[in-house]
Design a protein that fits this description.
The structure holds two protein chains of two kinds. By secondary structure, chain A is mainly β. Helix content of chain A is about 0%, strand content about 40%. In chain A, the strands form eight sheets. A four-stranded antiparallel β-sheet of chain A has the order 3-2-1-30, with no helix packed on it. In chain A, strands 4-5-6-7 form a four-stranded antiparallel β-sheet, with no helix packed on it. Chain B starts with a strand and ends in a 5-residue tail after the last strand. Classes of the chains: A mainly beta, B alpha+beta.
């Protein structure tokens, strides 16, 4: 079971560990600066942290000593002739890196390979552990990209990257708002696969368009990679055929709205969500923070509340704020109000970490 | 030779890659325009570039550049002249939160 959490917050990266019966901060890094994402790469033990310094741009750091020291890496950059045109009528503008919104390791046999998803919509690949980055031109050049638009940000972005454990050339990425895209050849060619999804926020005649779907987060079952789950802007969808077709799961209690989703690494029918009131409101239903869990592929859900605040709670959990460890027993999630909770029993009961965090954007086990 | 002064919020990020020491907050560099001077500074401190300008070479939205106390008006082309003894001051917008 993973014994360490990397918690990315508005005011730094915190390493949180079990101590004296609770979870406490072991050390911090980048105190005062906005850390938006972290990655623990078990291929070589290195940690990565994405920072958004605001005035001074987006940065990437790497540690090879478990967070004691960090080196600055290159970040993905856009060339002078690359522009962002969006499907919601904003005028085209030169592409510049706005946010590192996804950072994933390549396959087990691809040491040094990383994938990065960005706002304004570029997918990037590194083959040298982040020392340099190359734009995946084939996806950037797809004409459908001009239909993408921002969800929560001015410009669209790639926030979920699933590298198939069976074959690392198979990639699946999710875009807000631009659908789900697949490649079987390490990103040389792409297809958009959203059959079954619908967009309730669009003009009705465009609800089924693939390249405007807003998957908030997509995750893939490690041991059954044809099974994927998506928390979408207007509901939950799952696929059991590698993301080619999707079925709506309409009975998530207490709400089908949310950002985060986790799937059990061995059991593709077990998944977790942290629901909120749709659409712009985005607070826990009845101000009670709960986790919804299905163990039967979405036919039914149980709602976990033990250990979570059940009164006057206004915690929202962002798309990267819910994590599950490799064994599938321990989960953790962090909220925009700085709450952090851990479960040791597959999400049945939760324990608050003994911390008061800055707003949390991402949680990952290391 | 013009002098480039970095506000402390910017200078704190920079290390000289050769010595691992913090870069001085003031750097003398040749050039006749803002763009020329900054390019010469970036050549000596490559890490600084991404903090001051964006992917396309424009001064970042929330970074301000002053020449002898006057903010430059064209943050994209950077063609404004700088006198031989001129000072380029780089600072950031003040933020909240």
């Amino acid at each position: 079971m993973s014994e360490r959490l990397l918690v990315s917050t508005r005011k730094g990266l915190f390493v949180v560990v079990p101590q004296r019966g609770g979870w406490r901060i072991e050390r911090s890094a980048f105190l005062g600066d906005n850390v938006t994402l972290a990655l623990a790469d078990d291929r070589d033990g290195s940690w990565y942290a994405a920072l958004n310094l605001g005035h001074f741009g987006v940065k990437l750091r790497r540690s090879t000593d478990q967070g004691r020291s960090w080196d600055e890496l290159a970040v993905p950059t856009y060339a002078a002739d690359q522009t962002v045109a969006t499907g919601d009528g904003k005028p085209p503008k030169p592409a510049t890196l706005q946010l590192l919104w996804a950072l994933e390791k390549g396959g087990a046999d691809e040491r040094g390979r990383l994938w990065a998803g960005t706002i304004p919509g570029g997918l990037f690949r590194s083959d040298d552990s982040g020392a340099s980055w190359q734009l995946v031109q084939s996806l950037w050049d797809r004409p459908e990209r001009a239909e993408w638009f921002g969800g929560g940000y001015d410009y669209p972005g790639i926030h979920s990257i699933c590298v198939d454990p069976r074959d690392a050339r198979k990639l699946r990425v999710a875009v807000s708002c631009g659908g789900v895209w697949q490649s079987a050849d390490s990103g040389d060619t792409w297809s958009v696969t959203t059959e079954g999804m619908f967009a309730a926020y669009m003009p009705p005649e465009r609800a089924g368009d693939p390249a405007i779907q807003d998957p908030h987060r997509m995750v893939q079952c490690r041991d059954a990679p044809d099974h994927l789950w998506v928390q979408h802007h207007n509901g939950v969808f799952r696929s059991s055929d590698g993301g080619n077709t999707w079925a709506e799961i309409a009975n998530v209690s207490p709400s089908v709205f949310g950002f985060a989703v986790a799937v059990h690494p061995r059991d593709p029918h077990t998944a977790w969500f942290v629901p909120a009131v749709k659409d712009e409101c985005r607070v826990p239903v009845d101000a009670r923070l709960v986790v919804a869990r299905t163990r039967d592929g979405g036919q039914s859900f149980d709602v976990a509340s033990e250990g979570l605040p059940q009164q006057d709670a206004y915690d929202l959990v962002y798309r990267h704020g819910l994590a599950i460890d490799g064994d599938g027993n321990r989960l953790a999630f962090g909220s925009t109000t700085g709450g952090l909770w851990v479960s040791e029993d597959q999400g049945a009961r939760w324990q608050a970490a003994d911390v008061r965090m800055p707003p949390i954007s991402a949680v990952v086990f290391a | 030779m013009p002098r480039v002064v970095l506000a402390s919020a910017l200078a704190r990020w920079l290390r000289d890659s050769a010595s691992a020491h913090a870069v001085d907050a003031a750097i003398d560099a040749p050039g006749e325009t803002v763009g020329d001077v900054l390019e010469n500074v970036f050549a000596r401190h490559p890490q600084l570039r991404g903090y001051v300008v964006d992917d396309q070479g424009a001064v970042r939205h929330h970074v301000a550049v002053f020449v002898d106390g006057v903010a430059i008006s064209d943050k994209v082309r950077l063609r404004q002249p700088v006198a031989a003894q001129g000072e380029i001051y780089i600072m950031q917008a003040l933020s909240g939160g």
